[in-house]
Q: What sequence folds into this?
């Protein structure tokens, strides 16, 4: 065919030129004589002389050869289409899930088409021979890897008759025998099973119904598998079906590729599953296991009794309250209190540091199964990444949990002094950053082993620990030192005169107080820690407790895309404690908008309770703003304590109204009256409405040299009360909260102090 085409390409221009010349001569003659010629002179197509009578013989030969070639081309094309049709029908018959009736119908169509196609195969493929499958049939056990279909490469229809037609390569066929017993898989390594890539593919007569049944029983082909290849049959009915498949010689057959009903392969290895105690989904996910998180869980369950709440905490303990770690636990006479974490309150009643016993919670693995929902705590896990778009978090162990609504109550981490961070390992391992249960146990053990402990910090925590450890100065001979840069204890909170009075109170507890102390550097020398101050003073001690504040935990801000407040720190939220539409923040980590006092961040127990409770309500659809003024309290032992609310800053102008204290004006008496050591839990707004101002006469002013038994300190900003400290005055916090909420200017704060009944006996 290629030769005919080449001859035609050479002679066609000559034939077209001769025909064109003849037509042009006829037109010129007609124009010259004005009529059609009866006979047109023949065109000279040969190089011989004209008039010989055979000048156009070559032209006729070329035209005839062209027609003949076109006919042959059309015939071969139609025959090739029929061959491809037969191959396609065989392929369909060999596919899985093919019913017997469909297979029989395909076989009939193929057999009819084979009868017509046989002469053509004899002419064009004289050298083709059927593939002998006998050697492959001798294989006792054969595997059936993942079935693939190689690409079919059609032969070029324009090739010459002498060139054999290249059919689709059959790559490594495997004989599949019907087996009644389970067959052990073996990798196919013998070359006898493989079909030669150079041999033509021969189609043989009909497909028996019994042949198609194994293919129909094959498992469904997934996207990762290729379809079955055509079936090659022999003339003998007993010859098994040969399924052509592609098995690369350079790679072995994996277990997941060998799928067979008679000889099932091993199950593919699943990805490493998350630990069994980690649920995949939690409708309410609370990150953090502190007070705010527990308050939110209790609030959610109160409004939605069937709610399923999951608490994820980095600590190994269930949710617990932190105030007793620096207060009542140090005054317990029970030596087992360190392990049991049970203590006696100032009123003598015993309770546990934990909010609820373990029986209150459900197992995290059973959270999705329990009928009425519940609260589950996943301990020892830390959320390291948060996907707010996908509503899921990633834990430190690699597991993931999806959620519908999420609360971030991660609290904070104790802040350390830079001079201690840079001092080296010897100093670091002799320094305690007080925050958790393990810190309490560690410090309690250390206090019994060393001779001297120095507390750096004069705030609430530092002063409480100083008084607690000071009690042991006489019992076990422990030296307790407290140093801070202010002029007195809690100098950033209390007015100067009251701070000085508090400092003397701490000294009476057996503590050596060093004021105006700014640490320059810390070294470890001769088995002692040497603390050098900027004024040249040198303090030697065995152990350091750094109580210099709290740094809010905002590690998730980057992955979650949440805003961190540049002034106060913490996650920036709105008045409803929302950071996103389904994400809330509560506790120490929340920088919220106070509708009365502006943007704030508070680090106290009562704030954790109130903000957690409000966040839980808003997570269930309450949409309430944070208008509540949280309070905080501090006890310097069982005899002196105070409660505060609002903005309590010693830099603000203050007005104090004091009176003589009685036996009931102590923290111990206050807890006896309320019945609980956590005073914020006993507050009610109704108290503010029932209390009335006293009618007794105003007492004379109290001078600073007198004993400040009890009193009220007002903190003013623009002549408006923005903060109140109740010194040894208890259960009057709703009144102080109402004063701040009203935001009015008062001409005489002595009259306002009467509302607190501080002059009652």
A:
């Amino acid at each position: 065919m290629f030769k005919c085409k080449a001859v035609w390409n050479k002679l066609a221009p000559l034939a077209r030129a001769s025909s064109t010349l003849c037509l042009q001569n006829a037109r010129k003659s007609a124009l010259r004589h004005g009529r059609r010629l009866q006979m047109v002179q023949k065109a000279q197509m040969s190089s011989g002389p004209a008039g010989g009578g055979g000048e156009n013989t070559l032209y006729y030969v070329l035209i005839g050869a062209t027609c003949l070639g076109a006919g042959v081309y059309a015939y071969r094309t139609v025959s090739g289409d029929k061959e491809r049709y037969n191959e396609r029908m065989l392929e369909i018959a060999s596919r899985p899930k093919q019913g017997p009736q469909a297979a029989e119908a395909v076989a009939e169509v193929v057999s009819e088409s084979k009868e017509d196609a046989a002469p053509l195969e004899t002419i064009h493929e004289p050298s083709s021979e059927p593939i002998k499958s006998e050697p492959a049939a001798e294989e006792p056990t054969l595997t059936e890897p993942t079935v693939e279909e190689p690409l079919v490469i059609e032969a070029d229809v324009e090739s010459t008759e002498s060139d054999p037609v290249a059919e689709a390569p059959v790559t490594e066929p495997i004989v599949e025998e019907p087996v009644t017993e389970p067959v052990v898989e073996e990798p196919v390594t013998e070359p006898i099973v493989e079909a030669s890539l150079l041999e033509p593919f021969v189609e043989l007569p009909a497909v028996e119904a019994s042949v198609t049944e194994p293919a129909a029983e094959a498992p469904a082909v997934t996207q990762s598998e290729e379809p079955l290849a055509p079936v090659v049959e022999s003339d003998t009915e007993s010859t098994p079906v040969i399924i052509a498949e592609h098995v690369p010689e350079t790679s072995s057959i994996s277990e997941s590729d060998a799928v067979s009903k008679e000889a099932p392969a091993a199950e593919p290895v699943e990805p490493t599953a998350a630990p069994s105690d980690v649920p995949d989904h939690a409708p309410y996910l609370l990150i953090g296991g502190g007070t705010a998180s527990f308050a939110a869980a209790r609030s959610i369950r109160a409004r939605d009794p069937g709610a399923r709440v999951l608490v994820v905490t980095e600590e190994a303990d269930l949710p617990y309250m932190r105030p007793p770690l620096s207060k009542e636990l140090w005054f317990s006479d029970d030596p087992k209190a360190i392990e049991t974490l049970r203590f006696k309150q100032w009123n003598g009643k015993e309770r546990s540091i934990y909010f609820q016993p373990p029986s209150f919670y459900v197992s995290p693995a059973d959270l999705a199964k329990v009928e009425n929902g519940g609260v589950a705590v996943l301990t020892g896990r830390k959320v390291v990444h948060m996907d707010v778009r996908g509503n899921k978090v990633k834990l430190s162990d690699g597991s993931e949990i999806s959620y519908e609504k999420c609360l971030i109550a991660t609290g904070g981490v104790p802040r350390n002094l830079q001079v201690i961070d840079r001092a080296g390992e010897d100093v670091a391992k002799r320094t305690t950053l007080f925050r958790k249960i393990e810190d309490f146990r560690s410090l309690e053990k250390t206090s019994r082993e060393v001779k001297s402990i120095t507390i750096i910090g004069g705030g609430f925590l530092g002063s409480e620990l100083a008084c607690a450890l000071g009690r042991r100065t006489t019992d076990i001979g422990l030296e307790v030192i407290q140093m801070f840069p202010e002029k007195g204890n809690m100098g950033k909170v209390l007015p100067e005169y009251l701070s000085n009075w508090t400092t003397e109170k701490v000294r009476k507890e057996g503590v050596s107080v060093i004021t105006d102390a700014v640490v320059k550097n810390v070294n470890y020398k001769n088995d002692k820690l040497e603390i050098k101050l900027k004024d040249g003073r040198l303090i030697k001690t065995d152990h350091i407790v750094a109580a210099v504040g709290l740094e809010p935990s905002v590690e998730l801000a980057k992955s979650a895309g949440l805003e961190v407040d540049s002034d106060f720190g913490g996650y920036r939220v709105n008045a409803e404690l929302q950071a996103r539409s389904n994400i809330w923040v509560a506790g120490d980590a929340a920088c919220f908008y106070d509708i009365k006092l502006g943007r704030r961040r508070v680090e106290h127990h009562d704030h954790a309770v109130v903000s957690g409770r409000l966040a839980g309500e808003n997570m269930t659809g309450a949409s309430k703003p944070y208008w509540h003024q949280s309070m905080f309290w501090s006890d310097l032992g069982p005899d002196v304590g105070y409660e505060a609310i609002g903005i309590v800053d010693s830099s603000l102008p203050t007005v104090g109204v004091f009176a003589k204290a009685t036996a009931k004006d102590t923290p111990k008496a206050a807890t006896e009256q309320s019945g609980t050591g956590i005073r914020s839990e006993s507050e009610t707004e109704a108290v503010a409405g029932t209390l009335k101002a006293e009618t007794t006469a105003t007492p004379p002013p109290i001078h600073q040299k007198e004993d400040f038994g009890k009193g009220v300190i007002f903190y003013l900003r623009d002549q408006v009360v923005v903060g109140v400290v109740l010194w040894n005055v208890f259960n009057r916090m709703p009144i102080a909260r109402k004063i701040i909420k009203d935001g009015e200017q008062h001409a005489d704060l002595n009259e306002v102090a009467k509302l607190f009944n501080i002059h009652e006996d």
